[in-house]
Write a structure and sequence with these properties.
- This protein has 354 residues and is α+β, with helices and mostly antiparallel strands.
- It folds into 2 domains: 48-245, C8orf32 fold (Roll); 252-353, Sandwich (Immunoglobulin-like), CATH 2.60.40.
- Helices cover 31% and strands 37% of the residues.
- The chain contains 9 helices and 16 strands.
- A 5-stranded antiparallel beta sheet has the order 6-7-5-4-8. Strands 11, 12, 14, 15 and 16 form a 5-stranded antiparallel beta sheet that branches.
- A hairpin with a 2-residue loop joins strand 2 (56-65) and strand 3.
Length: 354
């Protein structure tokens, strides 16, 4: 082949290769060009809107699923939103944000939309999961540092809806709360640098699965678009996450202070104020506070019990207990809290002579 002909042949091959690439990558190239155009023009795809009037925050979404456009409108009182937004956010117990009941009423309209639409469209249970996740995935990923000024800031589900997005832990908390309220078994999957959701499913379902307790949970990605139940990004396929249960439960803490109130020659009487705080999302039931003076042999010198039928979620309660001990013996005061639906707690003083 002559050099000129070889040159023309190579040019032809390059043009042909480019044409083939364009044909097979048309959609991806179109998406990239669109994103670049939006970036240069300062415009972004708008599927979220929010307005505030008369103390009410109104927000709306539109998103795509199964070649249809879906729409949702919601609202929350500004005062309620601010109360949730100002509520700590340092607790690393993700299940608290999923199982908290304070925003259930505000999520009810969205859950009704999912349920009624799934019934009208005759989605099976797994298509319904994909329907829900298509909504969550349509929200933009936003870092805590940029949107809140904090390195770590965990949003309650309604906050993520009102704010129009969040990071992976926010979208996973929202997804878990929605699916749990719709009757699905869910857990959170915590990797070193990522949070996702696990959805309870049957053995026949395909995809990435985790055996936990008596069930099989399938990976559900909550960030990015197009991920369906069982599909997992490559970087997490071979990693084992911490599996976090999200059911409502008590979260109790215990502290106490003692004051001598009666001092006699052979006896000292004490008032012990026991403070119990339930930071969980479920009432602590059938509780018993036990205060006792313990001897070096492990036997109690004296013991008093006080029963508390319920310690409510979010409640702080001080329980006074009167108890006495003989003077001149080496003892320590111990306080124990037992409830039917929580692990026992116990705190003791150092050894001292009464």
């Amino acid at each position: 082949m002559e050099p000129a002909d070889l040159g023309l042949f190579l040019i032809f091959i390059v043009i042909l290769g480019g044409a083939v690439y364009l044909i097979f990558n048309y959609e991806e190239l179109t998406r990239q060009v669109t994103e670049l155009d939006e970036t240069l023009s300062g415009e972004t795809k708008k599927n979220f809107d929010r307005i505030e009037e008369d103390g009410l925050i109104k927000f709306s979404y539109s998103w795509q699923f199964k070649k249809k456009t879906w729409n949702f409108e919601g609202a929350i009182q500004r005062e309620k939103y601010d109360a949730l937004r100002d509520d700590g956010k340092t607790d690393s117990n993700y299940w608290l944000y999923v199982s908290d009941r304070r925003d259930d009423e505000d999520l009810a309209t969205l859950i009704t939309l999912f349920r009624e639409s799934a019934e009208d469209e005759r989605f099976d249970p797994y298509e319904t999961v994909n329907f829900v996740i298509s909504f969550v995935q349509s929200m933009p990923y936003t870092s805590d540092k940029v949107t809140t000024g904090y390195d770590e800031y965990r949003r309650y589900p309604i906050e993520t809806l009102v704010d129009g997005g969040g990071d992976c832990e926010d979208s996973s908390i929202l997804t878990a709360a929605l699916l749990q309220e719709m009757g699905y078994g869910v857990v959170l999957l915590s990797f070193e640098d990522h949070i996702a959701v696990g959805v309870l499913g049957s053995e026949e379902l395909k995809g990435k699965r985790y055996v936990f307790g008596n069930g099989i949970y399938y990976y559900l990605e909550t960030t990015g678009e197009g991920w369906e139940i069982g599909e997992i990004p490559d970087e997490y396929k071979d990693l084992e996450p911490e599996i976090i249960e999200v059911e409502a439960k008590p979260l109790l803490s215990l502290s106490w202070a003692s004051t001598p109130v009666t001092v006699m020659e052979n006896y000292t009487g004490y008032r012990v104020d026991v403070e119990v705080v339930n930071d969980g999302t479920e009432d602590a039931e059938n509780c018993e506070v036990t205060v006792f003076f313990e001897s070096k042999t492990g036997e109690p010198y004296s013991e008093e019990k006080v029963r508390q039928r319920v310690i409510g979620a979010g409640e702080s309660r001080t329980i006074p207990v009167s108890i006495g001990v003989a003077r001149g013996v080496e003892t320590m005061i111990s306080v124990r809290l037992d409830c039917d639906n929580s692990h026992p707690l116990e705190k003791s003083s150092s050894w001292s002579t009464s």
